[in-house]
Design brief:
Blueprint (H helix, E strand, L loop, with lengths): L6 E6 L3 H12 L4 E5 L5 H6 L1 H20 L13 H26 L2 E4 L2 E5 L2 E4 L2 E10 L3 E3 L13 H4 L8 E5 L3 H13 L2 E5 L11 H14 L2 E3 L4 E6 L5 E5 L2 E6 L1 E4 L3 E3 L6 H4 L22 E3 L10 H16 L13 E3 L5 E5 L2 H8 L4 E8 L3 H5 L5 E8 L5 E7 L3 H13 L4 H6 L22
Parallel strand pairs: 1-2, 1-6, 2-3, 6-16, 8-9, 8-14, 9-10
Antiparallel strand pairs: 4-5, 5-6, 7-15, 11-12, 12-13, 17-18, 18-21, 19-20, 20-21
Helix pairs in contact: 1-4, 1-9, 3-4, 3-6
This protein binds NADPH dihydro-nicotinamide-adenine-dinucleotide phosphate (NDP).
Length: about 450
C-alpha cells in the first residue's frame, strides 16, 4: 500500500455501505478513514429499516390485541403511549449508533466527524481539514424526494414520521411505493385514520400484478383508505393548523399530517462531484462500472448513491465486493438477480425472482405457468379477522424452473429468505413438490401447490 497519501481508503458516508466498506478494508490492513456529518448507521439505522420495523412490531400488538378475543382473552382495549414508544425507539437507535462507532474503532478506522467535500481525485476536506487518500468511496446514500407541488412546505417525509408530535390522529400518505404502503399500514395499526393517495392505477409498481391488487384490497380491508388514480394538485393549511389535500377528484381536508413518500434521490449535492468530474446519470445517481468505479478512476460509489436497487443488503454486498476488488483478489461479485425483498405492510409482502408479467415478456406467455392460492390462514379461523393471504409461484414450463415466488401474508420476509436460497440453486417445481411441508405452517403452502391456475 502506498504511503504517499494520508489513507489508503477514505469513505464518505457512515451508513450501511460506508461502515461495512470501511470496516472490511481496515480488517484487511488498509489505513482507512470514514467521514460522516450525522449519526452513524445512515438511513437504515436512523430513519429507515430499523425504526420502521420497530414501529411495525408496535402496530402488530394492536392487531394482536383485537384478535386475541377470539382466543378467549378479555380485557380493556390498550392505548398507545406514543411518547414512550418514541423514547424506546430513540434509545435503541442510540445504542446501535454506538455499536457502529465501536465496530469502526475496533477495526482501526479513523472517524472524521463533519461534512466531507471532494477537493480533488485524491483529496477530501472534512470540517476545513484536508485529507488525502489513494481510493475514495462515495457512500452517502439517498434522501426523500418531494415533487414541486404547491404547499410542499406543509408536508413531511418518512424521516420525520418517527418523531411526530403529537401522534397524527388523521394521516394522508401520498405515494404508492414501499415507504407509502409501509407507513400507511404502520400508522393505521398504531391508531391513525389513514388515507393513501396514489397517482397511478396500482400500488407498488414493479411487483407482481396479483400481489399489487391483493395488497391494495387487504390494506383496504384492514381499514386504510386506498385511493388510486388520485394525483395531488395542492396542499393547503387552515388557520387551525389542519391540512387539506386537493386533486381533480376532490379534497381530503382536516388532516393532521401529509406524508410524501414519492421516491428517494441519491444524495450527491454539496460533495464537490461536478468540480472533480464525477459523472451522474439522468436520475442523479453516480455512474459506475462493474467494479463501482466512477468516471474518476480513484473515486468509487456504492449503495443508494449509485445503485438501482435501494436495499440495505444490496449496499452491504456492494461494499464487500468493492473491498475485495481494492484490497483482495477481486473475485467477489454481486449478483443482482434473485434479490429477495419484503414490504412490511400489514399483512407483509415477500417476493423473490420474476413477476408473472416479467416472465411472460421474457419467455413468452405459453412457456409460463402460474400456481396460486388465496386463503384465510389458520390463525384467523379463531381470530375473527377476515384477512386473506396469497402465495404464488411463477414457473417456466419448458424447464420446470421456479422463476418467481411471491406472497402476501404473515412473516413474508422470513419465509421468502429461505426460498430465495433454493431458487438461487435453480430449484424446479418438481423440487418444491417433493419437499415435505412443515405442518401446520403458512410456508407449507409453497410446497403443496398442485394445479396450475386457470387464466382469469
Ligand atoms: P418508490 O420508488 O418505491 O415509490 C415511489 C412512489 O411514489 C410510487 O408509487 C410513485 O408512483 C410515486 N411517485 C413518484 N413521483 C411522484 C409524484 N411526483 N407525485 C406523486 N407520486 C409520485 O419509493 P419510496 O420512496 O417508497 O422508497 C424508496 C426506495 O427505498 C424503494 O424503492 C426501496 O428500494 C427502498 N425501501 C425499501 C424498503 C424495504 O426493503 N422494505 C422499505 C422502504 C424503502 P408511480 O408508481 O406512479 O411511479
Amino acid at each position: 500500500m502506498t504511503e504517499r497519501h494520508d489513507f489508503d481508503l477514505l469513505v464518505i458516508g457512515g451508513g450501511s455501505a460506508g461502515v461495512r466498506c470501511a470496516r472490511m478494508a481496515a480488517q484487511r490492513g488498509a489505513r482507512v478513514a470514514l467521514a460522516e456529518a450525522a449519526a452513524l448507521g445512515g438511513t437504515c439505522v436512523n430513519v429507515g429499516c430499523i425504526p420502521k420495523k420497530l414501529y411495525s412490531y408496535a402496530a402488530g400488538y394492536a392487531e394482536a390485541f383485537v384478535e386475541s378475543a377470539g382466543y378467549g382473552w378479555d380485557g380493556p382495549p390498550p392505548t398507545l403511549d406514543w411518547k414512550r414508544l418514541k423514547q424506546a425507539r430513540a434509545k435503541e437507535i442510540g445504542r446501535l449508533n454506538g455499536v457502529y462507532g465501536n465496530l469502526l474503532k475496533a477495526a482501526g478506522v479513523t472517524v472524521l466527524e463533519g461534512w466531507a467535500k471532494l477537493d480533488g481525485p485524491h483529496t477530501v476536506s472534512v470540517g476545513g481539514k484536508r485529507h488525502s487518500a489513494r481510493h475514495i468511496v462515495l457512500a452517502t446514500g439517498g434522501m426523500p424526494h418531494v415533487p414541486d407541488v404547491p404547499g410542499r412546505e406543509f408536508v413531511v417525509t418518512s424521516e420525520q414520521m418517527f418523531d411526530l408530535d403529537p401522534f397524527p390522529r388523521r394521516l394522508v400518505v401520498v405515494g404508492g411505493g414501499y415507504i407509502a404502503c409501509e407507513m400507511a399500514s404502520i400508522f393505521h395499526g398504531l391508531g391513525a385514520e389513514v388515507t393513501l393517495l396514489q397517482r397511478g392505477g396500482g400500488l407498488l409498481a414493479g411487483f407482481d400484478g396479483d400481489v399489487r391488487r391483493f395488497i391494495a384490497s387487504e390494506m383496504g380491508r384492514a381499514g386504510v383508505e386506498v385511493k388510486l388514480n388520485w394525483p395531488v394538485e395542492a396542499i393547503t393549511r387552515h388557520a387551525d393548523g389542519s391540512l387539506c389535500v386537493t386533486s381533480a377528484h376532490g379534497s381530503i381536508c382536516d388532516t393532521d399530517v401529509v406524508l410524501y413518500a414519492t421516491g428517494r434521490k441519491p444524495l450527491t449535492a454539496g460533495l464537490g462531484l461536478e468540480a472533480v468530474g464525477v459523472a451522474l446519470n439522468d436520475q442523479g445517481a453516480v455512474v459506475v462500472d462493474a467494479d463501482y468505479r466512477s468516471s474518476v478512476p480513484s473515486i468509487f460509489a456504492i449503495g443508494d448513491i449509485s445503485s438501482s436497487k435501494q436495499l440495505t443488503p444490496v449496499a452491504l454486498a456492494e461494499a464487500m465486493a468493492l473491498v475485495d476488488t481494492l484490497f483482495g483478489d477481486g473475485k467477489r461479485k454481486v449478483d443482482y438477480d434473485l434479490v429477495p425483498t419484503a414490504v412490511f405492510t400489514h399483512p407483509n409482502i415477500g417476493t423473490v425472482g420474476l413477476t408473472e408479467e416479467q416472465s411472460r415478456n421474457e419467455f413468452g406467455a405459453d412457456d409460463v405457468e402460474i400456481y396460486r392460492s388465496d386463503f384465510r390462514s389458520l390463525r384467523h379461523t379463531l381470530s375473527g379477522s377476515q384477512e386473506r393471504s396469497l402465495v404464488k409461484l411463477v414457473v417456466r414450463k419448458s424447464t420446470d424452473q421456479v422463476l418467481g415466488l411471491h406472497m402476501v401474508g404473515p412473516d413474508a420476509g422470513e419465509i421468502v429468505q429461505g426460498f430465495a436460497v433454493a431458487m438461487r440453486t435453480g430449484a424446479t417445481k418438481a423440487v418444491f413438490d417433493s419437499t415435505i411441508g412443515v405442518h401446520p405452517t403458512f410456508a407449507e403452502e409453497f410446497v403443496t401447490l398442485r394445479e396450475p391456475a386457470v387464466d382469469d
